[in-house]
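Hello K.,

You asked for the raw outputs rather than the summary table, so here they are, unedited. I folded two proteins back to back in the same session to keep the settings identical. This is the first:
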Amino acid sequence: METTIEKVEGALAITPALHAIEDGIESTTRELQRITADARELQLANNRYTDEANGLTVIGQADFELAGRRVVELRAKEKEILERIKPLKGAAKSLHTATCDLEKEALKLVSAKDIFQKKADDYTAEQLQRQREEEVRLKEEARKERERQIAAAKKRLETLRGKGLAVEEQIAAIKKELEEDPAMSEIEAVTLEAELKALEMSLEGTHEKIAEQAERIEEVAFTPPPVAAPAIPQMKGASVKVKWVAEVIDPLALIKEIAAGRAPISAVKAFDLTKLGNLAKDGLKYNGISYKEEVSSRFTK
């Protein structure tokens, strides 16, 4: 079975034939240039012969013989011109045939190109999937770490509250921990700061705000930084394009999605698969549709 490389090498073997065609074109072009120059001279001669013919009146033997000589001269010139043109016409025809054959051979490169393209696209799709899996793993790790920090913050508060200290003493203890523990997590710091603010408000008599601070202690408003997997390495001149291709496999299920208000009514305009694919790319997928991700790579010079 012919391999991809063999296909490419076979197609690239057309180079000598291409050079031969180029040489033939160059030779034919030079001959055409010479004939063109001769044709300009012939045109001038033709004008002279035409003027002479139009001005000739055959009224005697001498005029008759002149006309005869001109016919013989011009017939010979006509034969000479046609004999020079005939091989050029044949060469041009041969060049055309050879060029068409060369074109057929060159198109064999297309099948090899498609094989390379598919393998590059498959690799890119695999890398994208690995990237997504890595993002899921990193997000899960971040979630667990956040839960650990929240538990540590609550434990720290419980420890402080369990000492039975007066409000002023609790305030001082919290300030000391905030100042002296550089390893404290952000969640622990936010939690202690919220507790400190609530204690200070209790001293000031701002009781209506204490409940709000207590609630903040229980549910710390902390958003972990965005988690992203390392980007896929790219070669110079290559880019990755991802699109979602939608195919309606259960029209009734899709209509139910539309009826429930979960899918846009515009999606059923002759089942706008492009729109459905674009929505899937944004994370909006509906029942009744199968989704397939198509990945393509683009290569430039």
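The second followed immediately with the same parameters:
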Amino acid sequence: MADEALTIKTKFDKAKVFGFHTGHESTPRFIFLLGFSMFAAVTALYAVNLSRSEGLTHSLWIVVLTAHLACFVFVLFDAFPGMCRNKPSASGELWPLQLLVIGCGSFATLLLPALVARTAQEDGDVALAVGALGAACAANAMMLAMVFEYFHRGTRKAMELAEKATPAPSIGAEAAPVAATLADAESVPLTGLTFSWATPAAR
């Protein structure tokens, strides 16, 4: 089982999947810039809403912004070389780190509808609060979409590599044991009924 799992992982790694796969060298750079731009946009909207709020709403915006920045720091530890456990990068393989990333990100996002409601009650101008919620949802959707693409594309390519490495079995070879079994049998019980026929020897 361990050897099989290692083989699957090796084939998966050879698939060389990296979201929006185009084969172009600039693809990882584009994804990094897109992700950082979305992070910066969400941060800016959080900061603007924080500067316009007061009282409890102001405190909640501080909590959201803090969780958002903490999530960014954890992502850096997960993604960049030399920042985690003397490995090239954690690459999503360290579940406690993923727990912190997902926990902080989801906490900040799920708290935003409450802030939209409080902002509507206080001054009625919810455009920036709704914009912050929309930007956060878009950033989360990008991350989840890339994760789904990574696994779907990686699984497909791993299966393609496995099919190339393993020759297809002969249909005749698979059918031979079944034919031999049927040739030796005189009757086959099926749901309480018995169907009988003469074997070649009886004929």
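Residues 127-165 form the longest helix (39 residues).

Happy to rerun anything if the numbers look odd on your end.

Regards,
P.
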